[in-house]
Amino acid sequence: MYQQLLKPLLFRLDAEAAHHLGLGALSLLEGSPGLARALRGPDDPAHATTVFGLTFPNRIGLAAGLDKNAEAMVGLFALGFGFVEVGTVTPRPQPGNDRPRLFRVPEHGALLNRMGFNNLGAHAMASRLSELEWRPGPIGVNLGKNKDTPNERAHDDYALGARLLAGLCDYLVVNLSSPNTPGLRALQEPEALRRILQATRAEAGARPVLLKIAPDLEDEAVDAAVEVAVAEGAAGLIATNTTVKRPFIHPEAGGLSGRPLLQRSTEVLARVRGRLPTIGVGGVFGPDDVQLKLKAGASLVQIYSGLIYQGPRLVKELVSATGPTPRPPPR
Ligand SMILES: Cc1cc2nc3c(=O)[nH]c(=O)nc-3n(C[C@H](O)[C@H](O)[C@H](O)COP(=O)(O)O)c2cc1C
Fold first, then answer.
1. Average pLDDT, the chain
2. Quick one: which of 260, 272, 274, 281 is 20 to 30 A from 30 by CA?
3. Protein residue whose Cα sits closest to atom 21 of ligand 1
4. Which atom of ligand 1 is nearest to the CA of 303?
5. By CB neighbour count within 10 A (0-12 exposed, 13-18 middle, 19+ buried), where does 191 fall?
6. Which pLDDT band, with edges at 50, 70 and 90, does 326 fall under?
7. Which of 178, 257, 265, 305 is catalytic?
8. Is the peptide bond before 240 cis (omega within 30 degrees of 0)?
9. Which residue has the least CA distance to atom 13 on ligand 1?
10. d(CA 27, CA 73)
11. What does the buried/exposed string (b/e) look like for 219-235 if buried means 16 or more CB atoms within 10 Å of the residue's CB?
12. pLDDT number for residue 7
């Protein structure tokens, strides 16, 4: 139904209008966890896994940026996701960049965005999370800094986000890799990164803290960031965010996601292999892509652009494609 009916209609709309329509439809399930549970159906225990000390009903999750304000978590879990990451959330609400700021590039299976952390702020997210009635899998909160917070004070924003939200979610993500907040990615440099991870972990209590990295870092910079993440007690990594590189000519600025990101995001994933448990994300559109991520070392896999192009049935298709989670041999 999505490919034949809904997608042609949605793709006729402006990309951000279609986004709000889709998310709005999913959010209708917020008050109906019973119906959502029925739509999800039973989880197959063979797909369950434990990562970062958390139990996941399956290894396919929603990447950050689709549900920035935690408005549609019940509907998203109804689709079959094993975990949902909400945000990026900043301490104070902010409008993001001027529209248009989200573009489709269908001939490349890609999206291009320069949203700029538009969100309702950490207090609004805290109230949404505290009202949530049904959590069939872990919820991650992806933290960012406000645009008008200078980089020297960035650690305060991450610490505040962690203080307000750690108790309401299962893991936190330090996002320093979005290309649409000026200067943000410079904070992946070791000294700044150390300070931000320390400040976040100090407020996170027992919650695992993950670092989301950019695909545009040089390999040596990836290694350096991972060293700091290990030294500062991060529980895991997310590889990767969107890229500012363009494998084709396009007039719009912003971060590119979808098929063109598959290769580089998987290279980064393979590079960090064995250092910390990692969520692989970037360009997953079908079962083969999931296998590629798992083979490259992913413990879990997230999707965003694939969901827009392939539709909601993709989630269960990918869950089945992961097969049973490998178990350590019995002793
Ligand atoms: C419209 C849009 C908004 C996004 N917003 C965020 C965000 O707020 N925080 C973040 O960490 N990643 C954000 N992302 C990046 C995704 O989480 C993901 O890392 C990236 O899109 C690669 O996955 P994909 O190829 O499956 O889309 C966004 C991506 C898109 C397309």
1. 95
2. 281
3. 257
4. 26
5. exposed
6. confident
7. 178
8. yes
9. 65
10. 7
11. eebbebbbebbeebebb
12. 87
pLDDT > 70 fraction of the chain, expressed in percent and rounded = 99
Neighbours of 51 (CB within 10 A): 21
Highest CATH level, class, for 2-322: alpha beta
* Cβ atoms of residues 279 and 302 within 8 Å: yes
Is pTM beyond 0.90? Reply is yes
Task: Give me the percent of the chain exceeding a pLDDT of 90.
Answer: 86
What is the spatial distance between Cα 151 and Cα 328, in angstroms, rounded to a whole number?
44
The average pLDDT across 34-41 equals: 96
CB 2 within 8 A of CB 313: yes
Residue of 242, 245, 307, 310 best suited for mutating to test ligand 1, as the one with most atoms within 8 Å of CB: 242
Residue whose structure tokens are 């000294």 = 191
